[in-house]
Amino acid sequence: MALMRRGLGVAIVAGSLALAGQAFGQGKEAVFGLHCDRTGATQTVGVFLCPGYHDYISLVNSRGGVEGFRIRVMEIDNEYKVPPAVEAHERFKKEGAVLTGLYGTPHTAALAKRLEEDKILGTSPGFGTAAAADGRRSPYVFPVAASYWSQATASVKFAKDRLGGSLKGKKIAYLFFDNPAGKEPMGIFEDLAKLEGFELRTFAVPAPGVEMGAQVLDITGRFRPDFVIAHLFGRAPSVAIKELKGKGYPLSKVIGFVWASAEADIQAAGGMAFAEGYNTLQFAGVGKDFQVLRDIEAMYKAQGKAVPKEMDSTVYYNRGVFVAALHVEAFRNAVKAKGGAMPTGEEVRNGLRAVRNFTLGGMVPPLQFSAEDHEGGGFAQVWTVKGGKLVKSTDWFQAYRDIIKKHLEAEAKKS
Length: 415
Fold this sequence. Notes:
By secondary structure, the chain is of the alpha/beta class.
């Protein structure tokens, strides 16, 4: 895996090489573009998620690639900044990338139109614009996992179940990172508050999200909610856990969106014992009990290499593996549909729309997509810190899909 730096402090990783001596048909190669943040505000995610992506592609290449194609991943560290992300898109396009793994909600918004114009598929798993779930409105952006709207409905459903099956007269605090991602589900929460009869109060945390003592004091000392829903990322989740625990608020009545849900967040807050009871939303399985992870470990051992430490941070690493596997599936469908020839970006997009009952050995819910549904159903799981580890608390579930549909239809009318 080669690493070099070019302008704006942007790192490019051109890698995911096959095992030495692996033969590929006639030098056939496909380029996958990958945005990442390894050095910016959300590097605590990228340094685990992106290696997971590369490792899965390496596994595929070690087994002969995809229908005779070797996959080359071109990764660019956008530092969680929009200008480098836009520059990265142009580099990917120049290299002939047939798809792109996006990174960051502001970045996805900035690139959506370019992806459509250039006919290059872009995936935004668990982030980005929730309205992109409607493929008719956003033909080249795929959320491919529970969007922020779906995470909002899932978190309210979980709070309702934990509070005895009714939210009438209850109080819910929404603690969020004050940027487009944090504001994305606001309308969903407002509709749910009216529907379920709870009082909603919002608490914005300014970037970089490491100072929220005033907000947490307001939540615990004045508002005194029955449940707290936290939508934070980067270093902010660990700060929130420490602040809430320090003010005596029970973490069993807190649920974090998917980017406030990793082992690294919990360890930085004080460790698993400290965060006992904390609930997290997930769109991919947690832990190492999946065959695909055992296969990656076996690949490293066969190469005489140590298993990378990044695999221990399973929440983000597993998501990287999931995204890579879904990209491979879309590309495979496109190659097969074209009789073995290199597909266009549009054909790879159609290949993702053709995915049916994709589970990656149980790591993700049964996913399928279509021209209308780019989200895959909006499923989530809740995992809870119990006895020093993350334990699954629910099976895959959806919630309030009629509310999601209402907002999708309203967004479609704006187009």
